[in-house]
Amino acid sequence: MAYPRQPLFAPHGAVATSQPLAAVAGLAVLRRGGNAVDAALATAITLTVVQPPSNDIGGDLFAIVWDGERLHGLNASGRSPAALTRELVLAATGGRGATPVEALGGAQSAGPAMPARGWLPVTVPGAPAGWRDLHDQFGSLPFAELFADAIGYAEHGHPVSTGVAATWSRALAAHVGLTGPEYAEFGRVFAPGGRAPRPGERWRNPDAAETLRRIAATGAEDFYSGGIAEALDAHAARTGGLLTGDDLARHRSTWVAPVAARYRGHEVWELPPNGQGLAALLALHILDGADLAALPLAERLHRQIEAVKLGFADAHAHIADPERVPVPTRALLSPGYAASRRALITERAGEPTAGDPERGGTVYLCAADAGGMMVSLIQSTYLAFGSHVVLPGHGFALQNRGLGFRLDSAHPNAVGPGKRPFHTITPGFLTRDGRPVGPFGVMGGHMQPQGHVQLVSATLDGGLDPQAALDAPRWYWHAGRSVLVEPELVGTAEGRAAVAELRVRGHEIAVADEPAVFGYGQAIWRLPDGGYVAGSESRVDGAMGGW
C-alpha cells in the first residue's frame, strides 16, 4: 500500500523545492537569521549544481516577492543577441526553420520553429543578475554567504538524487548527433565516462564552483562585464555563436507589477508578459463563472480543459516582449472578455482560436520566513541542458530560450535582435482580499499554466492542503483534442466513468505513465494562527523543510 506524503507544518518559516539538498541549503539560511529572499537565493543557486539538467548558471529567472505589505515581480529573463535576425535563422536552417519542438505545446509549436540546440536559440542568461537584484532589494545576509552550499557541492561533489539521475539520463539522448565545436565541452562536464551519473553516484563540477565564486565576489559583474563575459564572447566568436560581450553588458533585469485574476474570492497572481502566466489567469477567469465544486467530475474536467485551451490560444497569439510591442494584458483580463470566451465552451471538445480583445527543463522553489516575507521563484535553462553549449572551463550550460520565438515575421513574438522571447516559466502567488495566502508553482514547459489551474482549483474548489493538492491526479493538454491523464485518475470507478464521458464528448484521452509530463510543483500557505503549511512534489525528488 502506498502512503501519501503528509504536508509540512512549520511555526517560523519553510522552504520547498524539487531537490532535497537545495531545500536544506535554503532552510539553513533561514535558521541562521536570513530572510525568505536569502533562503530562496541559496536554494536557487544550489539547484544549479544539484539539478543541472533543469537549470543552470546560464539560465533565466522570474520571481514574485511578498515583502510583508505588497507584491513585487522580477523579470530576470535575457534578450536575444543584437545579431540575431529572422533572415539569419532561415539561412542557417535551409530557409525552412526547424521541426517544431513538442515541449512548447499547442499553437505555439505550429509551423516552422527556431532550432532547439546550438547557438541560435541562446539568449543572454538572466539568472546571475536576478540573484543579485533580488538580494540588493531584499536580502539581509551577505550575498557571497548564500553561495556556500552550492560551491561546496560543486567543488567536492554530491550524490546525485534519483529523480535528477533519471532526467539526466533521458536528456543525454538529445545530445546524440550534436557534433559541432560549440558542443565539445558538454561531454566532459555533464557526461563523464560517456553517460549520466547513476542515483547515489558522486558528481563534481569544480569549474562551476569557480564560476559561482566569481559571481558571488563581484555581485555578478564578472558574468556580464568581466572575465566570464570575455570568455563567453571569445567562445561564441570561435564556434559560430552570436552572443557578444556587448550583449551581456547591456543586460538588465526588470522590476514589474504582477497581474491577477479573481477566483473563488481570491486573487491569483502571475507575472506579466513575456512569461506565459497570462494563460493560467485567462483560464481561471473563465472558470470563475461556474461552481466547479458542485459539478460531476467529468463536467469539471471538461470545463477546465476547455478553459486552458482558450487561455493558451490567447497567450500564444498575443504574448511577446512588452518593451518591443504592445501586449493587451489589461484587455485580456477584463471581465467582459472572460465572459465572451466562457461562452465559447460547449458540451463538446473544441479546438479554439485566439480572441481579439480590445486593445489598450525548469526548477521551482518557494520560501517563507517568520517576518511574513514570502518568495515564489522559478529558474531554468528550458529544455534539458538548454542549448547544450557549455562554456569551456566554466562548468555551465547556456539556455535555449530563443526557441520561444516565432519565425512568422508578422507575429508580435517574431524572432529579432535584442528581444525577450515568449517564456514558459512563471511563478505564482495567491492572496485573499489583498492579504497573502502564499507562493506556488508547477514547473514543466507547456504544463505550467494548466498545472497552476489544477493546483489552484484543488485548493479553492476542493479544499485540499498544499501537499494533497499537489498529489491530486493531473491531466495535460498538448494540442487539438489530445489530453493525457495520470494513471491515478483512472484508478477509481468515478475517474474511469469521467474519462469515458470525456471521450464521448470528443476528447482524445490517453493514459501516460511518465510523471515528468505532468510537471513538478511546490506550495506554501500561511496558516491563520501563524506559521505555514507546505507541500512539495512527490512525483520526483521534491523536498521541504521548516522550523
Mind explaining what this structure looks like?
The structure is a single chain. 34% of the residues lie in helices and 17% in strands. With 547 residues, it is an alpha+beta fold.
Unreliable sequence segments: none
**What is the strand tally?**
19
Shape, per Cα inertia axes = globular
Largest sheet: 7 strands, antiparallel
Number of helical elements: 18
In whole angstroms, the N-to-C terminal distance is 30 Å
Strand line-up of the largest beta sheet: 1-18-17-13-12-9-8
pLDDT averaged over residues: 94
User: Rg to the nearest angstrom?
Assistant: 22 Å
Strand content: 15-25%
How does the helix and strand content classify structurally?
alpha+beta
Tell me roughly what share of residues is in helical segments.
25-40%
List keywords for this structure.
alpha+beta, 17% strand, seven-stranded antiparallel beta sheet, 547 residues, single chain, 18 helices
Question: What's this entry about, in short?
Answer:
Helix content is 34%, strand content 17%.
Show the helix and strand layout.
Layout (H helix, E strand, L loop, with lengths): L7 E3 L3 E4 L2 H12 L4 H15 L9 E7 L4 E6 L9 H7 L34 H12 L9 H9 L1 E2 L2 H11 L11 H7 L11 E2 L2 H13 L2 H5 L1 H13 L5 H5 L4 E3 L2 E5 L2 E5 L6 H11 L9 H22 L10 H4 L2 H8 L19 E7 L5 E7 L47 E5 L2 E9 L3 H14 L5 H6 L3 E3 L4 E4 L7 H12 L3 E4 L8 E7 L5 E5 L6 E4 L1
Parallel strand pairs: 15-16
Antiparallel strand pairs: 1-18, 2-10, 2-19, 3-4, 3-11, 4-7, 5-6, 8-9, 9-12, 10-11, 12-13, 13-17, 14-15, 17-18
Helix pairs in contact: 1-2, 2-4, 2-5, 5-8, 12-13, 12-15, 12-16, 13-18
